[in-house]
Amino acid sequence: MPLDFNAPIIEEFRTNAGRLGGPFEGWVLLLLTTTGARSGKEHTTPLGFVEDGDRLLVVGSAGGSDRHPDWYRNVLVNPTVTVEVGPDAWQATAVAATGAERDALFAKVVAAAPGYADYQKATDRVLPVVVLHRIPASDYTPPDRLDALADELVKIHDWLRGELAALADGLAAPGAADLTVELRRHCLTFCAGLAHHHGGEDAGLFPYLAREFPDRAGVFERLRAEHDTVARALDGLRALLARVDETGPEELRPEFDRLRSELEAHFAYEEAEIVPLLRAAG
Fold this sequence. Notes:
9 helices; 7 strands
C-alpha cells in the first residue's frame, strides 16, 4: 500500500492499541516494521495475518499485483523485524517459506482468509508466505549492523545443535516410556527449524552476500548443495522415525549419527565462511 495511505492507519493503530474504525472497523491487522534492503531505513506496513501456533503468517499479496511488495524484499535481506499486535510490540525473525511448505502454509492462510486466493488468481507471481518467529527479549540483538545478523546465525545454529543433542539423548534411552513421543517432538521441532533457517538463507541471505562478495560464489554454491543434501537426509530420518514403534531406535541410530555428522560439518563451514563476510559487510 502507498505510504500516504498507510500513515493514518498506522497512527490510528498505535493510538487505539490495534483497534481500527471507519472502513477498517473489525479488521485484525499487525504492523510490520522492516529495514530497507537498500536504504537501511525502517519502514512500517499494516498487514493481515494468520496465527499458526506460536508464530504468525503474513502474505506478500500486494493486492494481487505482479510485483512483490517492498516489505517482502526487505526481509529477504534483513530478516529481523518488529511486529506490533494490539498493544504489544516484539522482535521477530521473518523467514520466507519455500516449496511444499509454502504451499501448505498458503492453503492454511486461504482457509482462514479466502480473499488471498483471489489475490493469487490475479497474478502469475507466486504470492510469498512469510513466517514470523518471535525472538525472546533476552535473545534480541538490534539489527543496526550486519554483524548482529552474524550473532543471530550462530545463535540459531546453537539452538539447532541443542535439539540434535536432545534427539540423541532420546535415542540413547530406549527404556523411556515416552520415547517415541519425545523423539517425534524433537524431530519435528528440529526439522521445521532447520527448514526455516535454510529457506531464509537460500531466499535472502546468500543472494545478498553473493552480490556483495562475487568472488565467493563457490562458497554459496557449496552451501546450497549442502542444504539439498541435508533436506534429503531429514526426509530419511522422518521416514525412519515414523517406523520407530516397529523397528526400535537401534535402526534409527546409524542414520541419525550420519545426519548429525553432516550437520555439524555444515554448521562449522558456514560459520567459518559466512560469519566473517557478515562482519565485513556490517
